[in-house]
Structures are given as C-alpha cells and as structure tokens.
Design a protein that fits this description.
The complex is a heterodimer of chains A (417) and B (351).
Chain A lengths: L1 H12 L5 E16 L4 E17 L3 E5 L6 H8 L7 E6 L2 E2 L5 H8 L2 E4 L13 H11 L5 H14 L16 H13 L5 E5 L7 H18 L2 E6 L2 H7 L2 E6 L2 E6 L1 H6 L4 H9 L5 H6 L26 H5 L4 H5 L5 E2 L6 E2 L4 H6 L18 H6 L2 H7 L7 H4 L24
Parallel strand pairs in A: 3-8, 3-9, 6-7, 7-8
Antiparallel strand pairs in A: 1-2, 1-4, 4-5, 9-10, 10-12, 11-12
Helix pairs in contact in A: 4-5, 4-6, 5-6, 6-7
Chain B lengths: L4 H15 L5 E14 L2 E14 L3 E5 L6 H8 L8 E10 L2 E2 L5 H7 L4 E4 L3 H4 L6 H13 L3 H14 L5 H4 L9 H13 L5 E5 L7 H18 L2 E6 L2 H7 L2 E6 L2 E7 H6 L4 H8 L40 H5 L5 E2 L6 E2 L12
Helix pairs in contact in B: 5-6, 5-8, 6-8, 8-9
Classes of the chains: A alpha/beta (417), B alpha/beta (351).
Chain lengths: 417, 351
C-alpha cells in the first residue's frame, strides 16, 4: 500500500522532465484497398492526431470500445506499427526515425504483453525457450546464466521453475499469461505495453494476474501503458486514465477524478454502461444508453466525432459547433483532468452514469469476524502478504494449492452434524 | 382502447399466472445430471442440479467458465451433443410437461416456440447464407402457421420492437451486413418471434462492447417485461446478474453452490466461493485500490470427483468436514436462500 502510494505520488509530482514516453500528434492510418488492382479506396483513421505522455513510473490506462484505436496506439508507441505521422519519444529518443539496429537496442527497454495467451505463445517452443529467446536476441545471457535467469523469471511470475521444459498447451490461460509476463520481463524493460492482458481470463484468474502485474510494477519500478476495455480494471490499476473514441483521446486524468466527475459525455456514457455488482446501486443509478453503433473510422463524423451519439448534444438542443468544430483536449474540472468537449462544464455538472462510491461499503461477504473464529493458519493464509515479497505472494500453481492439510485440525469439535 | 405496454404486460402476466395454477413455477429442474463420456473418464459437467423458475421471473446462473452453466441450459432443451454428452438423470418440468420424457417431435415443437434462445455469439448462431428476414420468419412459419405475408408483417413488427431502423428495407440483408449489436438484436427478435414463455440467454452480451451491452440488456429486460417472458440469464459477469436478475444461482464445478434473491447473494452470501468471486472483482464503485483478494488455484477437473466439497482445495476456511463429505444445499436465514457449505451451516464454524 505504502509503496503504491509513494509510487503514485512520484508519478504525479514528477511532471517536469520525467516523461518516459511522449506521443505527439500521432496518426496511424490504414489504407482500404479494393478491386483487382488493390487500389487505395480510402483510409481508416485508426489513430488520428493524439498527443499525450506517459510519466516515468506511472501506469496509464487506455480505455475505449473495440475499434477505437487503443491497441494501435499501444503498438505505434513501441513501433510495432509504423506511425503515419507524428512522433513518439522514448526517454528523449525519437523512435519514428530510428534505424533498425538502434531500434532493436532500444526495444530492450520496452516490451509488450498481448491479450491472447493462446495465440501469443509458439506452441512448438518450450516455456524455457520462449522466455530465453529475448535474452538471446539481446545477447544478455547464455549457458548456465541463461538457465538461471529463466528459472528466476518463472519464480517471479509465480510459476514453478521445473516447468521449464513444458509446452504452452500444458498450461491454463492464467498460467500462459504469466509466461507472457515472464517473457516481457526477461530483458529488464522499463516500459511495458499491456494490451488487454486479462480480458481472455476468468474472473478469479483475472484478479491473480492483475495482482501479479501490480506487484511487479511496484517491485521493479515499471511503467505501464495498460490497455483494456474494462473500466473497473483500468480504474483499479491506473494512476491516470485516457479514454479513446474513434481514434481520438476524449478525456484524460486521474481515475478518481474522471470516474467521479467525467468531463466528457462519452466517458459518462461509458461509465453508466458498466454494470456494478451491487443490486441496490444498479437500481439507483441514472443511465444513459447510447443509441446506435460506433461510426466507421473510415468516415468519421464531422466536428466532434461523438456528436452523432451524444446525449449532451441532444440535451443542449444540438449546438452547431459540435457538428463543425473538433474540440481540442483542454483542462477542465479536477486537477490534471483534460477533456475534449465544447460543453465539458455541462457534463461535469450532470449526475448521469456515475456509480456511487461509498467509503462505508464493505467488500461484500468477507466476514472479517469469521476470521477470528477460523483456524489460525487460515487467518495467516488469507491475511497480510508481506509487501514486496513477491515470491511468497504469488499464487502457487495447481499442484501447490494449499491443500490446507495443516489448516485444520486442532479443534475437531466443530465438525458439522 | 390502447393499453400502455406496462398494462398489457401486467394483464398478460396475470392471465398466464391464473392459467398456470397447477404449478407455481414455469420451470422446475430436479436432480438434473448431464455427464460427458470421454476417453479419459466420465466428466460430471452438471451434477444433481435443482432449481425453479417462476413465471415472468429473471433467474441468473453465474459462474466461471467450465462450471456447467451452459451445459445446464443445453440440457433443459435437450441440445447436449450426444455422444459424448448424456443427460443421465433428473427431470425438467416446463409448464407442466417433463421435457426429458417428451418425444423428439414434441421437443421440436417446443423449441423456438415456448422456449426462445439467445446465444453468446450472434455471428456463428445466425446462418450466413440466409437473409435476416428468412431466418426470423422460419420460426414463425414453423410454429404459428402464418401465411407468407402475415409472417413478413410479423417480422417487420419484431425488428421494429428490437430497435432495428427501417426494418422493411433490411429484410433481405444478410447477417454480415449487420454489426455485432444489430445481429444480437436479430437473435432477440428470433427468440421472441413466437411469444415464448421462457428465454434462455446464454452470455448474450459477452461478445459485445460495453455500450452495446447496455443497449442489449435494456432491450432484454424491457421486452421480457412487456411479453411477460421468464428469462434464464447465464453470465459470468456478476455486475450483469446484479442489474438484471430477481434471483441468482451460483454454480461451481457442476453444482449449484448458492441460491437466493439477488440482494441476498450480493450482500450476504454464505458460501466462500461467492465471497471470493465478489472480492476478486475490481469495481467501479470502489474507493480503495489495494491488492485484490484472489481465489487461489484453479477449478477442479470433473472426472472422478471425490465426496467432498468441490471448492475445498481453494477454500481458506476448509476443515476436515469439507474434505470428508460434500455438503447439501441447506437453508440460510432469509427465505429462499440456500448455500452448500459446512462452515456457514447450522453448527458451522463461520457464524
């Protein structure tokens, strides 16, 4: 907790000169080809003129619906996609004009974790060779040193080092995602693009991987760009959140601020669409249901791209500038909050969509009382996990699940009748 | 005299309720077991599952992948692929008829008419080679014996109801011409086409974006109210269950481990698995952002299941009793609230 708070503070305070990645007027367009000669018939503006920075040590969440350009942004930032225009600076070095060799050297400092733990691991390679491949590429270790590093990495992500000769199909989705994390960590990067790293996993496994990513970040001082479509997950892990719509960033700021008082009507609509696992607050919340689908990025609406689905635009009587002028990101509302809306002030005043955050709210069903009655070793099991002690904190693999043999039996009297 | 949709819904519901005096429930599932016979052994995907669903009620079936929620839904309509799957025991009484004893023909008359389906993936559940209009009219012609013209009118009416603009112009479009959300609307139109008493919605919004998900959920809840249709909603998303359902069944490893009203399940659950699920969710309405509590380990394989609580290897509260015998679903404080747990049962060690 303290580590996390400190980290967040350094991230927010260190505004000056401590940006690790700076994105300036980035554009990524894809040509649409058609006909036998594959002539260019149009362009999909996947990312259209966005500028932002990732501060050293922070986690920047990037959210939006599918097709909004969030993955393309993430990839363009480490030049897995060539930007059409604009610049990306990594630690002061301009990436877009870098020669292949220099780029490869720099790639050691930036890595990516992919969404699909099934598609992103080569089924014919053992776990050991998957993780050691980046070590070889960057000539970081060989022989015994390499083997040691691989087993250290496996331990770091909570896998048993003896798994080194197994193949990806022998692992569950969550374990595979751990392998992906180990591969990314192998070269000791500073910056990791996490591209929907937990979307393909089950709820209980999501939490495990999310905890792993937070622990690693706090321990190794990593900077993340965390791409996800799930707003609750992004809120949980991020120091700042950027919301994208149709290739543009429409709002950016600290999650507590923008989740409590969004300055952009799209953020508000997005928040109102997220179901909250609390029946009472579900009944109480005011929703806006957006009509229609996201327009095609090949032919985006004029002016503000959101105006075709915007509830605020309707409420305000369809003001003309929404249709004609593309609103720039500007400072609104809370500290460090920016939104791209002509009428952000009206959005701030609304109460639509926001889930009521309640200090008093207990995590349901966790009967803290029960812990006193439960067996001591049980209490230890669920209780505090030493901060920073990652190996212990990590989840044992299936064979090592606490069989709770010890957790049990001094007081046998409590056996149910 | 036009009735408002609310009044109409109330009246249909009352009529249904009075005509169904013979049973309180539209659907009563008793001791349903569906096993898969594989070379590695018998997988007990659904094991002694019992629940009831009232007329016009929305019941949630929640759990992680592989817990048996989809197989339960398939079993209800006898759509389990056989081999390897087989319903080995139990009864499914739907509106007074035991579906498991019904002839294949009788079953066919029921599917799509009395029971509508909404599946997860609207792209693979619609036929790409047939027009939308044809696919919706198919069920109507099969079950309601309408003329071609009348059935087209009905299709247009349905498409309008599910919010597809310019419905008449889109009858001859193919599924690929629709977006994901629109396809799911078409699925809903098919499900509702013959005024079913029950809709099985199996992860209806999992493949959709969150704003489209909100549209579809709203549509399902408005239309099921209007038509007085009961909904069995299968989902892994607890937030959706909280917003949509009247009652919720929590499934784990082929068993229902807890059942109760939505308020009870989300506020006072009495089963460590339910606690774990709720705790492991990052939430929008959370102020803290500490570590998430997790459920350690993985769900068990459903081959050779021992007589023990299926959750015990992952349960922080487990004791010997949990490893020796599997607990039954026993009542808890609130009426209608049942949980399968020694620890929170009478005389258990969690008060």
């Amino acid at each position: 907790m303290t580590v996390a708070t400190e980290r967040a503070e350094t991230a927010t305070n260190g505004k000056n000169g401590s940006n690790l990645v700076e994105v300036d007027q980035l554009k990524v367009y894809f040509p649409i080809r058609a006909g036998i000669f594959k002539t260019i018939k149009g362009t999909v503006k996947a990312v259209d003129d966005i500028s932002f920075e990732v501060r050293r040590g922070e986690t920047l969440g990037l959210v939006g619906e599918s097709g909004c350009g969030k993955s393309t942004t993430g990839r363009a930032m480490i030049r897995l996609r060539e930007p059409t225009a604009g610049t990306v600076k990594f630690d002061g070095v301009e990436l877009t004009s870098l020669k292949p060799n220099d780029l490869r050297r720099l790639r050691r400092r930036m890595q990516i974790i992919f969404q699909d733990p099934y598609g992103s691991l080569d089924p014919r390679m053992t776990v050991g060779s998957i993780i050691s491949e980046p070590l070889e590429t960057h000539r970081l270790a060989k022989g015994e040193g390499k083997r040691e590093r691989v087993s250290e990495l496996l331990k770091m992500v909570g896998l048993d080092p003896s798994y080194v000769n197994r193949y990806p199909h022998e692992f569950s989705g969550g374990q595979r995602q751990r392998i992906g994390v180990a591969r990314a960590l192998a070269v000791e990067p500073e910056f990791i693009v996490c591209d929907e790293p937990i979307s393909a996993l089950d709820v209980s496994i999501q939490a495990q991987v999310l905890n792993l990513l937070t622990d690693l970040r706090d321990r190794l001082g990593l900077t993340y760009l965390f791409i996800a479509h799930d707003l609750s997950v992004v809120k949980h892990i991020s120091d700042r959140v950027a919301v994208m719509y149709l290739g543009k960033i429409v709002e950016i700021g600290p999650p507590d601020t923008i989740y409590a008082a969004p300055g952009h009507p799209y953020t508000r609509a997005l928040l109102s669409a997220v179901p909250v696992p609390d029946p009472q607050s579900e009944r109480r919340r005011r929703r806006v249901i957006l009509t229609g689908d996201v327009p095609s990025p090949a032919n985006p609406p004029s002016g503000c791209r959101f105006h075709t689905r915007c509830w605020l635009y309707e409420n305000l009587g369809k003001p003309e500038n929404c249709r004609t002028i593309d609103p720039p990101l500007r400072e609104v509302g809370g500290p460090d909050q920016k939104a791209a809306c002509h009428y952000a002030e009206d959005s701030l005043k609304s109460d639509v969509g926001v889930a009521h955050m309640d200090e008093q709210k207990i995590r349901h069903g966790t009967p803290e009382v029960a812990l006193r009655f439960a067996h001591k070793s049980t209490a230890e099991l669920i209780g505090e996990i030493p901060e920073g002690d990652i190996d212990q904190a990590l989840i044992p693999s299936i064979e090592e699940v606490p069989s709770a043999d010890g957790a049990g039996d001094e007081d046998n009297g409590s056996k149910p009748n | 005299m036009e009735l408002t949709p609310d009044e109409a819904a109330r009246i249909t519901r009352e009529q249904r309720e009075s005509s169904a005096a013979k049973s309180k429930y539209l659907l009563e599932v008793k001791d349903l077991s569906t096993h898969f016979f594989t070379p590695d052994g018998v997988v007990r995907a659904v094991d002694d599952v019992s629940f009831q669903l009232g007329y016009g009620e929305t019941l949630g079936l929640v759990g992680e992948s592989g817990c048996g929620k989809s197989v339960t839904a398939l079993s209800l309509t006898r759509l389990v692929p056989n081999p390897p799957g087989k319903i080995v025991s139990g009864s499914v009484v739907f509106d007074g008829v035991d579906l498991l004893k019904l002839s294949d023909d009788g079953m066919r008359k029921l599917r799509g008419k009395e029971i509508g389906f909404i599946f997860q993936d609207p792209l693979t559940s619609l036929n790409p080679t047939l027009t939308i209009g044809y696919q919706i009219a198919e069920a109507i012609r099969q079950h309601m014996g309408l003329s071609k013209k009348a059935s087209i009118d009905r299709v247009v009416e349905l498409l309008g109801k599910v919010g597809i603009p310019r419905a008449r112009d889109r009858l001859n479009d193919y599924p690929h011409q629709f977006s994901g959300g629109m396809r799911q609307r078409v699925m809903i139109a098919i499900a509702l086409s013959c005024d079913p008493k029950l809709i099985l919605a199996d992860e209806p919004t999992t493949a959709l974006d969150v704003t489209i998900q909100a549209q579809i959920l709203e549509l399902i809840s408005v239309l099921s109210d209007e038509f007085g249709t009961a909904v069995l909603l299968i989902t892994h998303d607890l937030g959706i269950a909280a917003g949509m359902c009247d009652r919720v069944n929590v499934m784990y490893a082929g068993r229902i481990v807890e059942t109760g009203s939505v308020d009870v399940i989300f506020e006072r659950p009495r089963m460590p698995y339910a606690w774990g699920l709720l705790d492991s969710l990052p939430r929008l309405d959370d102020l803290r952002s500490d570590r998430l509590r997790t459920i350690e380990g993985l769900p068990p394989l459903l081959i050779n299941v021992p007589d023990a609580c299926r959750f015990n290897p992952r349960c922080a509260y487990a004791r010997d009793a949990c490893r020796d015998h599997e607990p039954e679903l026993t009542p808890r404080d609130e009426p209608g609230h049942f949980a399968r747990c020694w620890a929170t049962d009478k005389g258990g060690w969690i008060p």
